[in-house]
Amino acid sequence: MKSLYLSLFLALYVMLSCNAVIAQCDNVSVDDLINPGPFQVATLTEADGLRNGPEYNGATVYYPTDGIPPYVSIAIVPGFTALPSSVQEWGPFYASHGIVTIIIGTNSLVDFPEERAIALLDALETIRQENEREDSPLVGDLNLDRLAVSGWSMGGGGAQRAAVLDNTIAGVIALCPFLSNPQLEHSSPILILSGENDPTAPPAQHADVHYNATPITTDKLLFEIANGNHSVANTPNGGDGATGQLALSWLKLYVEGNECYCSILEDDLLDNPTAASKVEQDFLCSSLGLNRLQKVSEAYPNPAKDMINIPGNGKVQYQFISALGQVMLNGELTGNDKQIDISEYPEGLYYLIINGKTFKILKENR
């Protein structure tokens, strides 16, 4: 959780700007995170005309037949030596909640995480092409700007690496991930589900390391399931249903962009959860008076040393705030080449509010 000072500062922001959001959230609750969800589900395979990408081996798409498009999508890959059936239950679960899901096999059962990352990116290309295929029941119904990835074990490591390779990925769900010496410099919001007693990918050697290796500027959540083994997150029923509730809320919040799920995460699922042996979190959203982390292109570079660049035309109202909630800078910027000079401030995490949008900014002096 963020500091008390920052929380108090942002409480005022909530009162002044979030009344409409709160009203919109009255009809969304943790009781909606059921399995299955409200929508009917159908499937697509290569026999139905689905593309078979060269970087993976076979796929099944699960989709809602009575939902409200445009749909966001997620690609899922299994782990080392495992078949798609090992993670199959996620397909109908997500689809029954309005999220199109493609579950793929790998060209080799012993592919390592990097190959699985490339396979996931190829699966997303299949989703893109399905939106254009005339005979597809999903033609024109997919939001191609909101694509996510997930995977189990080495597939979970591959999902994180896919976010590094493609910075447009909107969210990551890593299921008991296995990835040695992780290089995870990406900005895709990531949920890591791990098992306390996982003998294959012990959290201290994998999930915990992955969480710490993800940049502080990236919204992230680590949920370790008490007494869980390596397959505890293979289905949405793991941890007495905690895996499905958390994963669905994460996708609803960060991929669909429904900020009502912020309060569900913070007030319901992460408030002394009985299913968890450990929780680590560093994410900001509307229950703290903050919008979802915006794309890096709207405020760059990040991390920043001297100047923060704000692209675009027109006027910009901004505030540069310390981690303790102290307003360091504020004002108005105009013109095409807008910059904020932060050179005099010490290293650390700051918050930049630009016309009501909030960014986490890491200040570095090297």
Automatic annotation (TrEMBL):
It comes from Dokdonia sinensis. SUPFAM superfamilies: alpha/beta-Hydrolases. Residues 300-360 form the Secretion system C-terminal sorting domain. GO terms for molecular function: carboxylic ester hydrolase activity. Keywords: Hydrolase, Signal. PROSITE patterns: PROKAR_LIPOPROTEIN. The keyword Disulfide bond does not apply. Residues 37-265 form the PET hydrolase/cutinase-like domain. The keyword Cell division does not apply. This is T9SS C-terminal target domain-containing protein. Residues 1-23 form the signal peptide. Gene3D superfamilies: alpha/beta hydrolase.
